[in-house]
Amino acid sequence: MSPSPKTVTYCSFACDDPSNSCVVILEGAYTPDEASRRAWRLHLNPGGELLAEPIKEDDPDVSSWLFDTMWANRHRRLSHDEARKLFDCVPLKASQLESDE
Question: Is residue 100 part of a domain?
Fold first, then answer.
């Protein structure tokens, strides 16, 4: 039996004060409510609006480089500037490219 693929939840927090806005990568798959609570328990949730997207290691729309980068940065708070540099301003999934066109 092969092990289950690793999963992370990409969380983007948008706050009234842009200096509090950030990205948090959580290990595991969470709904937005669960992700918010998990980030609070880890003292990483700045409040504000949350976008949370679970992503599996074997998701065909996510490159292995992008998943590995998220995995290496899980459970830390990244400023939006740091996240943009770290993820090289790529969309999370290839399907998001199509929806933007």
Answer: no
State pLDDT tens for residues 36-84.
999 999 999 888 899 999 999 999 999 898 999 999 999 999 988 888 8
Residue 66 inside a domain? The answer is: yes
- Give the helix ranges, DSSP H, for 7-79: 32-41, 64-72
Q: State the Cα–Cα distance between residues 89 and 33, nearest whole angstrom.
A: 26
Decide if 17 is inside a domain.
yes
- Is residue 24 within a helix (H) or strand (E), and if so which, with residue range? strand 22-27
Distance between CA atoms of residues 14 and 5, nearest Å: 29
Q: Is residue 1 part of a domain?
A: no
pTM: 0.80
Indicate the helix (H) or strand (E) that contains 7. strand 7-14
